[in-house]
Amino acid sequence: MSILARFSFIALFACTASAQTELYDEQQLSPQQAQEVGNLLRAQYKITEAFRYLKYAADLGDAKAAYLYAIELQHTPSTLRRNDDFEVYMLRSAKAGYIDAALYLYTQADWLESTEKSNWRSRYYEMVIELGASDPNQAFYRLYNYFKTSEPELANYYLKQSASNLYPLAVMATAANIANGQGTFLMPGSRETESRLMYKTAAESNFLPAIRHYILLLEQKNKREEAFEWRLKAIELGDLNSLAVAGRAYAGMSEYYSFVASDSIKAKSYLDLYLSYAGSDKLANVYANAQTLSTSLSKVMTADQIEQANIRVEEYKQSTTYYNFDYHWGV
């Protein structure tokens, strides 16, 4: 299946999965298709549904699915968790060559013997070198983290190589290093300004984690109007959580964004988009509050206003799939 076809497949699933969770029988999908659907559901807080697809793909040998399944087994509340041992799936993923699983094993797998962790450290390094042939900027960034503690100068060399090509995670790491005291800045406030500008550079690459961090920095500086503009930008790029934030703001329910003019049509459309894509297995309070506010708006809006909101929802669905872009999604 082509890349375009895969994305069309996932977009179709995303638009309908909340209404019909049995849309696809995982056994009719290839392991990669099941992994992609499971990953999307995971990023939309539909963990119970995601388990089904990720386990199916993992059991058929998909290394990324095994890693994601292990991560969710470890971090999911016991009421949703399957009985499978996350250690088994993490090892399965690493042995199948998934680089982040190898990283996890040598940095966080406390159940392994020191010799085993050392072996996985060596294997991870080999994987990073192999990655350099296809994605040198990511490989440089991974080498920065690999050598950060043991050989700081070498690590900083790799970070500069990656950041110079505007690899978003490297730019963000450089910004964090500046904020934490790296480098010399003589003018008061210049260190903070330089760090913030570097986060802005990463955000301008449309990398959602960078955008979210830049929004946080703007909010801390009380630059609320600019922060809200970036919220709307994040929505255009598919950031699920910003839908709920903007919905509350346009409903006049956000103390922080109280300057936003009330607009019931925009409020309901953003809230309904959030409810359409998000599950409640994580951030249950956000989901419940969005549900309550959307219902309250429906009671005071005219039929024409509700219709306009519904039209906006459908227009957004035609162009954008909403999910929480995290570091397990891919960089």
What does this structure look like?
The structure is a single chain. Among the domains are: 1-109, Alpha Horseshoe (Serine Threonine Protein Phosphatase 5, Tetratricopeptide repeat), CATH 1.25.40; 241-331, no CATH class. Residues 1-9 and 15-22 have low confidence and may be disordered. It is 68% helix and 0% strand. It has 17 helices and no strands. The protein has 331 residues and is mostly helical. Helix 3 (47-59) runs antiparallel to helix 4, helix 7 runs antiparallel to helix 8 and helix 15 packs antiparallel against helix 16. This is Sel1 repeat family protein. Residues 1-19 form the signal peptide. Keywords: Signal.
Mean pLDDT: 90
Number of discrete helical segments: 17
CATH class call of the domain at 1-109: Mainly Alpha
Beta content: under 5%
Model regions low in confidence, pLDDT < 50 over at least 5 residues: 1-9, 15-22
A few lines on this structure:
By secondary structure, the protein is mostly helical.
Short descriptors:
mainly alpha, 0% strand, disordered N terminus, 17 helices, 331 residues, Serine Threonine Protein Phosphatase 5, Tetratricopeptide repeat
Record the SSE blueprint.
Elements: H1 3-16, H2 31-43, H3 47-59, H4 63-75, H5 86-95, H6 99-107, H7 114-131, H8 136-147, H9 152-164, H10 168-179, H11 190-203, H12 208-220, H13 224-236, H14 240-250, H15 264-277, H16 284-300, H17 303-319
